[in-house]
Amino acid sequence: MIVFAAAALAVTLGITNDAVTAPTQIAAGLTTFTIDNHATAPHALRFVKLSAPHTSDEFGAFLRSGGKPPAWISTVGGVATLAPSRSEDYTITIAAGSYVIVDGDRFVPLRVTGPAAKAQPPAADVNVRLRDHGFQLNAPLSSGKQTIHLQNVGSEPHQALIVRLPERVSEFAIRTWITNGSHGEHPGEPVGGALEVPIGAEAWVTLDLTPGRYILLCGQLEEEGRHFDLGMIYRFEIE
C-alpha cells in the first residue's frame, strides 16, 4: 500500500495599513503561508521564535526599548518585502513553540502546536542554492507564476530578495537604499522572496513575475560588508 503525504498546511496572512491579520494558533509542520499586501506601502514579515518561558509581551517590550536582540529570540525565516497589491506563497517547516510574526514595529503572536505531521513540499520550478557568497540556480527565472526552492548551503543566514527595476532605476539605487538603512520610499518594486533563510534551512516561495529587469540579492550584513557587495547578487531579465 502506497501512502501519499498530505499537502502543506495552508495559512493566510493579511497586511493592511492598520494591522497584520493571522490565526492565533496553527499545527506544526510544513506550512504554506499566503501573504497578501493590501497596504499602500511595501511590507515584509519576519517569523521570530521565543524561547520558553518568554512571552510576546516581553518581545513587545524589547521592540519598544530597542538595543541588541536578546538571546531568547531567534529568526526562523521571513517573507521579503512585497509592494502594494503583491502576494506570495511562502512555505517553511515550522516547529512547535511560541512565535511572533513581525512587520516593522508591529507584531502578532502565533502559537504552533505539535507534533508535526508529514507533508509534501511544493513542486519547484527552479532550485536556488544560497552559498557564501553567491546564488546557484539550476534554471532561469521566467515569466508567470512559479515556485522557487531556496536552500541555504552556506555558513551563515542568507536572504533572497527579488526586486523589479523600474525604467531608469539601476541596481545601485537599490543597493545604496539597503546600505543606508532602507529608509524612505523603496526605489524599486519589491516582489518578494525570503527575508531570511537560516543556516541549513530551506524555503519555497511562489511568485508571479512579469516582464522586466530584476535583481536577486542578499542584503545580510557582516564585517566585510553587505553580501551583495561580496558577490551575492544575480541579475536577470524577463521578456
Describe it for me?
- It is a single chain.
- The chain folds into 2 domains: 6-119, Immunoglobulin-like (Sandwich), CATH 2.60.40.420; 122-238, Cupredoxins -  blue copper proteins (Immunoglobulin-like, Sandwich), CATH 2.60.40.
- The model has no long low-confidence stretch (mean pLDDT 95).
- The protein has 239 residues and is mainly beta.
- It is built from 2 helices and 20 strands.
- The protein is globular, with a radius of gyration of 17 Å.
- The relative contact order is 0.19.
- The chain has a 16-stranded mixed sheet that branches. It has a two-stranded parallel sheet with strand order 1-10.
Low-confidence stretches: none
The CATH class of the largest domain turns out to be Mainly Beta
The major beta sheet can be summarized as:
16 strands, mixed
Spatial extent as radius of gyration: 17 Å
Oligomer classification = single chain
Topology:
Layout: E1 6-7, E2 9-15, E3 20-21, E4 25-37, E5 43-50, H1 56-65, E6 73-82, E7 87-94, E8 97-103, E9 106-117, E10 119-120, E11 126-131, E12 134-137, E13 144-152, E14 158-165, H2 171-179, E15 189-197, E16 202-209, E17 212-217, E18 221-222, E19 225-226, E20 233-238
Parallel strand pairs: 1-10, 2-4, 4-9, 11-13
Antiparallel strand pairs: 2-3, 4-7, 5-6, 5-8, 6-15, 7-16, 8-9, 11-12, 13-16, 14-15, 14-17, 17-20, 18-19
